[in-house]
Amino acid sequence: MKLQSLSHAIALATVLSASTAFAADIPLSATVEKDQVTTKVLAVDPANHQVVLEGEEGRQVHVQLSDKAKNLANLKVGDKVDIQVTRSVAAFLDTDVDKGLPGSTERTGELRNAVGSSNPGGEAFRQIQVQLKITKIDLKKNQVTLENPSGQSKTLNVEKPEIQAKLKDLKIGQSVVVTYTDVLKVTSEHES
After folding, report:
1. What are the residue boundaries of the structural domains of the chain, listed by start?
2. Which among 30, 33, 53, 183 is most buried, taking Cβ atoms within 10 Å?
């Protein structure tokens, strides 16, 4: 998979999971946010896996990398570094009543530029899927109480009229599955 396509593929898969998990599941919401920062390298210490980047108003931002940063010796003072973060959240109602206890799963992954590449960079993702169990539905107050995997409950006020209309179709014991995905993409370019 090409480096540029990882963030797009993961974000798209998260959003699509809200509508294609199972035919009987009901999509509730899906959002994607993206932030981007372009900065320059002020200092590089490949032996200690450290980089100093220029922050806001010229402030120095020290970044400690792991030993997986193999091409750090190719990063030079003055190089441009582009950092993109894509966050997505997708939620759907699992129509299977009494499916089981709430739970969560986490997946992570990474792609890096090939060792020896003149421009260090890569992508990493973290995806957490949480199953929340519906424990109470209050149609008069438009509220739903959900229980998380650790047994804590939270009552949500449902304010969107289109979701309020669906509250009557909910059942105690159904699950709301929420998938959170963060993708970090870092590219670098030598100063021209």
Report:
1. 3-35+85-189
2. 183
